[in-house]
Design brief:
Blueprint: E1 2-8, H1 15-31, E2 33-39, H2 40-47, H3 51-67, E3 76-79, H4 85-96, H5 99-103, H6 106-109, H7 112-118, H8 123-126, H9 128-137, E4 143-145, H10 151-168, E5 176-178, H11 207-215, H12 236-244, H13 247-258, H14 264-290, H15 293-322
Parallel strand pairs: 1-2, 2-3, 4-5
Helix pairs in contact: 2-3, 3-14, 4-9, 4-15, 9-10, 11-14, 12-14
This protein binds tryptophan and iron/sulfur cluster (SF4).
């Protein structure tokens, strides 16, 4: 069973990426043959004006994947733009994809107004799901771990592949989504996590930044004074405790908050410790990798080559089916 997935490299990884994707990738690599892509062409469809920054973000994300334990010996970890076969298959798929299919994709429909405003009402952005279909098909991906927001893309991928198989008597597998329960991760202030709200927690945040961010989180407004009792369910700090903390710590918060046995400072202190437990070691490992560019290059090149071998074999087979080889 082959798993294929990826993240677009539009910026730094934050805790939403960890709980929404990375944690899942780590579990999957134990069980399946996995291909994980750093999707820089996908990043470019919206962030094309920051093209120069994207390669830096891609490199950082690669280092972060490794730092969190994605294992280049077990999985194939690669950069999308280093495997040009993706783009060739994108073109092949582009021709057999009716525009109507793309116009119906919710991520296009819903974003159309915004896209006009942000100058992303472009062909690349319109074809985004076709490129995603090529990403999957070029590795003959069968299972695709994605969030609920990506289900429509995967449906389109299956439609494209079905049409391809029908037209050319091909044997591309129809990939299935691997929908895993991922918790939704709000921003520090309880609103949707968004770059424009400055309410995110980056995996690379150092202890100082992290402390400042957590201490600034709003709490249950009923707890004005230390002796006021609170309700954790009305507090975003508790939402975070649910993500990062153990069962025992959560019980400690509920007991302490509802009886005013602990203060919000104590609660935040414990949360901070628990966040650090998760991110501190990978943060250091990532730094080491970035400080050792030769070694990182070696690992990246090896991953890209491994991906490319597979992609180029599959593209050859695809062209044979199409009788254009
Ligand atoms: N569109 C995906 C996202 O925004 C990223 C992605 C690109 C992807 N290509 C992929 C995911 C292929 C799975 C498989 O999260
Ligand atoms: Fe929120 Fe914790 Fe304060 Fe309760 S004790 S209000 S959960 S920060």
């Amino acid at each position: 069973m082959r798993v294929m997935s990826g993240l677009r490299t539009t910026g730094r990884l934050h805790i939403g990426h960890y709980f929404g994707a990375l944690q899942n990738f780590l579990a999957l690599q134990k069980q399946y043959e996995c291909y994980f892509g750093l999707m820089d062409w996908h990043a470019m469809t919206t962030a094309y004006k920051s093209a120069a920054e994207i390669s830096g973000w891609t490199r950082e994300m690669f280092a972060e994947f490794l730092a969190y334990g994605l294992d280049p010996e077990k999985s194939t970890i690669f950069v999308q733009s280093a495997v040009p076969e993706h783009l060739e298959l994108y073109m092949i798929f582009g021709n057999l994809t009716p525009m109507g299919w793309l116009e119906r994709v919710p991520t296009w429909k819903d974003a159309e107004e915004e896209a006009k405003a942000t100058d992303t009402h472009n062909l690349g952005r319109f074809g985004y799901p076709v490129l995603q279909a090529a990403d999957i098909a070029i590795y003959l991906g069968q299972k695709v771990p994605v969030g609920a927001d990506q289900v429509s893309h995967l449906e389109l991928t299956r439609e494209i592949i079905r049409r391809f198989n029908h037209l050319y008597k091909g044997k591309l597998p129809e990939p299935q989504p691997l929908l895993t329960e991922t918790p939704s991760v709000p921003g520090l202030d309880g609103r949707k996590m968004s770059k424009s709200y400055l309410n995110g927690l980056d995996l690379a945040d150092d202890s100082k930044v992290l402390g400042k961010k957590v201490r600034g989180m709003p709490t249950d407004p009923q707890r004005v004074r230390r002796e006021d009792k609170g309700d954790p369910e009305k507090c975003n700090v508790f939402t975070y405790q649910k993500l990062f903390s153990t069962e025992a710590d959560r019980a400690w918060v509920i007991e302490g908050c509802t009886t005013a046995g602990i203060g919000c400072g104590d609660c935040k202190g414990r949360l901070l410790e628990n966040i650090e437990k998760l991110i501190a070691e990978p943060r250091e490992r990532k730094k080491e990798l970035l400080n050792n560019p030769k070694r990182l290059d070696e690992i990246m090149n090896a991953g890209n080559e491994k991906a490319r071998r597979e992609a180029s074999n599959n593209l050859k087979m695809i062209k044979e089916w199409m009788k254009i080889s």
